[in-house]
Amino acid sequence: MAVVAVSLCVLAGIVLVCELARKVILELISEKRRDLRIYTAEIISTFQLCACSHELKLLSEDAPEIALSLTYVISVTHALTFRGATGNPTATLERYWCDTLDGACALRRTACQFAASVAAGLVMRSAWALGFSDLHARHKRDGFTCESPISNVHLLEAVAVEFACAFVVHAAASFMRNVEAKYRVHAVATVITAVVYTGGSKTGAVFNPALAFSAQFPCTGSSFVKNGLVYWLGPVLGMACSLLLFNKIILPFTTKSTSYKDLNLHSVQKKKKKRN
């Protein structure tokens, strides 16, 4: 329980520091520099996401059930504190394909995300080196090394798992888009937790290229090419298929259904008027 208590304190500390940094820095930056405010929020939020994920990944070695429960809590926390940032290159790419971001802005956001993910890995190593818990001290003695979860998993299977994880999460977010925010946050967090539980043993269920670059690429047992195909290509394809499903199939179908209902209602009202 001492290990869990320390990890809880670390997670709370990361969130508090990042939230304080967001408030202070965004107060200092003029509202006229909206672009700078966006990129700053993206850097801080991605750092928060990656740093918390590093701690949860380490905690899962000793207390997997607690780490899974905390995944839900921290997912809700991220959603409530990110202030419009995505922390995920595939989400940024989705916004670009939906024409809500221009190409230059999307590239700069993605660069911020990868830079923050690298910084998070370095900062967490420094924090673990302090040896706040036996888990941290043991990880330090091992040289902060980790074993890649896809070292013994076939390439196509690993790509399929990350594809499915990204598809489900993006589909859930799209499906819940019009739901009230206070319900949507918990619904999406539940889906993320379920996805991590289902695919975590195969690939770690990362479905985020920047987070994977920080948490999985340094691990031994897998090549850079395999990691790129699994953790970059898989999530991008999953997001693209989700976008295709909702924007090209479901959305047009529901729009047609709604228009038919409106036409039928209009014709019924006209008939009633004639009778009267």
TrEMBL record:
Keywords: Membrane, Transmembrane, Transmembrane helix. The keyword Transmembrane helix applies. It is a multi-pass membrane protein. GO terms for cellular component: cytoplasm; membrane. The keyword Transmembrane helix applies. InterPro entries: AQP11/12_channel, Aquaporin-like, Aquaporin_11, Aquaporin_11/12, MIP. SUPFAM superfamilies: Aquaporin-like. It is found in: Membrane. One of its GO terms (molecular function) is channel activity. The chain crosses the membrane at residues 229-251. Belongs to the MIP/aquaporin (TC 1.A.8) family. AQP11/AQP12 subfamily. This is Aquaporin.
